[in-house]
Amino acid sequence: MSRRDLLCDTAIQILAVEGGRGLTHRAIDREAGVPIGTTKNYFPTREAVLTACAARMTSLHRAAVQRLRDTTPAGISATDVAELYPALLRRAVADDPTQMLAMVELYLEAVRRPGVREALSGMVLANAEAAAALQQAAGLPSTVRDTGLLDAYFLGVAISLLALPAETLRTVGLDDPYALGIGVFSATAPSGGPPPERRSAGSS
User: Fold this and answer.
1) With contact defined as beta carbons under 8 Å apart, do 90 and 162 qualify?
2) Nearest to 133, CA basis, from 61, 64, 69
3) pTM reported for the whole predicted model
4) What are the tens digits of pLDDT across the range 166-184?
5) Which residue of 50, 64, 80, 180 sits 20 to 30 Å from the alpha carbon of 86, by its own alpha carbon?
6) In angstroms, how far apart are the furthest CA atoms of the chain?
7) Cα 90 to the chain's mean position, in Å?
8) Distance (Å, rounded) from C-alpha 87 to C-alpha 113?
9) How far is CA 123 from the centre of its chain?
10) Rounded-to-integer distance, Cα 116 and Cα 55, Å
11) Could you tell me if 71 and 65 are in contact, meaning their C-beta atoms sit under 8 angstroms apart?
């Protein structure tokens, strides 16, 4: 791993744990175990750090999707693709929420920082293009408009699962991660056959 990537990964971790207020050049240096001043040499301003984080997350996501596509068997169906989304939601919320929490912080920063907004735009477009390509491989006529909306739904659901207490999630019907994953896919995917059979939260 290059030092630049190390600093970006450390910054992403800090964003997830400490939020935007905890992200400083010195904090990144300390957490990365590099001499004080290293991060500032690579990324002179805080906006440069945030922009680099968005670019790094885009690169990581593209690599993950490419690995998924490389291992996708021929003849994958729309149902197979739909089944990916409960797994992605579980990973984003329960297994390792680092990327999702950092992304939320980047969205907030992008409201006020044009450079971060531009970098975040590139990440959203890359995500939508990769998801559209995967869905097209399954025979769906999906466009980046479809998958961009899917990503927006997915983000909103993930934030709710991360932020709200279990009782509230049950009350508003957000307590079944499997159904939610299938739901965000079905709400945006062009017609490609019947959705997969719904399973309860306790099903494997």
Assistant:
1) no
2) 69
3) 0.82
4) 999 999 999 999 999 999 9
5) 50
6) 56
7) 12
8) 33
9) 9
10) 10
11) no
CB atoms within 10 A of CB 125: 13
Residue type, 56: R
Residue 12 has pLDDT above 80, yes or no: yes
Token digits for 180?
């939610």
* Whole-angstrom distance, CA of residue 177 vs CA of residue 101: 18
60-87 pLDDT, tens digit each: 877 877 787 777 777 788 898 899 899 9
Whole-angstrom distance, CA of residue 24 vs CA of residue 72: 40
Residues in the chain: 204
Which one-letter amino acid corresponds to residue 4? Answer: R
CB 28 within 8 A of CB 11: yes
In the structure encoding, which two tokens stand for residue 85, read together? 């989304």
Tens digits of residue pLDDT in 30-39: 999 999 999 9
